[in-house]
Design brief:
The chain has helices at 4-15, 36-49, 59-62, and strands at 18-21, 24-27, 29-30, 33-34. The chain has 66 residues and is an alpha+beta fold. It has one domain (4-65). The chain starts with a helix and ends with a helix. 15% of the residues are buried.
Length: 66
């Protein structure tokens, strides 16, 4: 399962990500306002891209790493 260090790295990486939605840039962290859904999606992406096993989680599980 994901270690504390891996979770911290995943959250840090996810906070720097963004998507383009209908031509508009949507950041995970936009001037301190966190998009909960995107944060969770990008943490999952980080885990999957780095072959890190993880349990089901949601935004509440990540709060302590923000």
């Amino acid at each position: 399962m994901a270690t504390t260090s891996e979770i911290k790295k995943a959250v840090e990486w996810a906070l720097s990500q963004e998507i383009i939605d209908d031509g508009m840039k949507v950041k995970v962290n936009d001037s301190g306002s966190i998009n909960n859904h995107l944060l969770v999606d990008f943490v999952r992406e980080y885990y999957n891209d780095n072959d890190i096993e993880y349990r089901t989680f949601d935004f509440n599980d990540l709060k302590k790493y923000l």
